[in-house]
Amino acid sequence: MKDRPTEPKAWGFGSYVGKKGSENTSDNWRETRTIKLEYHTKDRPQKRRELHEAAERLGYAHCVFDSSDRYGAPTVAIILPLTEAINEGRYARLATVFAFELDHWRAVDGYSSMTHLAHVDQDCVIETFEGAVISPSAKIKETKNLYQNINPKHFCAAGPKAAVHLVEPIFTSHDGLFEWTATATETAQMTADSLLASIGVRLD
User: Fold this and answer.
1) Rounded Cα–Cα distance for residues 64 and 52 (Å)
2) Domain ranges of the chain
3) CA atoms of 53 and 39, how far apart (whole Å)
4) Model pTM score
5) pLDDT for 203
6) Which of 27, 88, 106, 162 could link 40 by a cystine bridge, Cβ 3.0 to 4.6 Å?
7) Could you tell me which of 127, 107, 110, 1 has the C-alpha nearest to residue 53?
């Protein structure tokens, strides 16, 4: 990479039937001993630190490094090593599990695909940290009832959807001594009165 500084490289961590980079396809993909997740960011040092802290809380060995998506936008990737090789089906499952455990958003499209590559250059920062190496069989068994039927683009969003909190209207007596929650009928009446008032109609 240092000999060809203007040429970005794409890193994958699986083994293939062929040896050429152009053969990074599902047909040629065989297995891997790592899970890689990649996230968009405007601040790589901060994102590396946040991903490290998340993996450290989980107790996992990991590597974080600067990368770019296929369009050149800045990203950071995290690698989680496994105790044994996994196939295509297990890769997608474990990528989803670890994405939930890390709980980071704005993932790069394709983050749960075993053929997903991280683009790097000669200036990328690479940091490695010790911890537990994950047993894929044990992790799949442990989470067999969790994170089912998840959209593969789930973590590509900017964040979780905010829960809608509806506050029931409160009535207060004229002397301020008593309060009570409006009934369904009273709420409907207030809504109708408010709508009419907004168009200049008042019912006395």
Assistant:
1) 7
2) 9-156, 166-204
3) 15
4) 0.73
5) 60
6) 106
7) 127
